[in-house]
């Protein structure tokens, strides 16, 4: 894995969403929203962008009569996150 800057992960809460999901099989919308500390519309917008990039898989379903949405990081999302975090670590090593 080569450290690489990923501009997609530098906007809004996308890095936080990916970091949260790296340790989860699936996380529901409310958990992501509450953990990241952003509103519904912000989470919706940024998870859609991550999904469009192939970083996030979205599953929709229901629990009882209530609609639910779950997210998980794809392999491409894990690779992008790992490379971006390595790039950030490298920056810190150079004092940037």
From TrEMBL:
Coiled coil: none annotated. Signal peptide: none annotated. Residues 14-90 form the Winged helix DNA-binding domain. SUPFAM superfamilies: Winged helix' DNA-binding domain. It comes from the Bacteria. PANTHER family: BSL7504 PROTEIN. This is Transcriptional regulator. It comes from Actinomycetospora endophytica.
């Amino acid at each position: 894995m080569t450290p690489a800057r990923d501009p997609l992960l530098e906007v809004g809460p996308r890095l936080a969403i990916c970091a949260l999901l790296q340790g989860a099989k699936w996380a529901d919308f409310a958990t992501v929203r509450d953990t990241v500390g952003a509103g519904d519309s912000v989470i919706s917008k940024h998870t859609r962008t991550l999904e469009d990039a192939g970083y996030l898989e979205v599953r929709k379903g229901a629990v009882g009569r209530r609609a639910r949405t779950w997210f998980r990081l794809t392999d491409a999302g894990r690779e992008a996150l790992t490379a971006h975090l390595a790039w950030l670590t490298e920056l810190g090593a150079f004092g940037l």
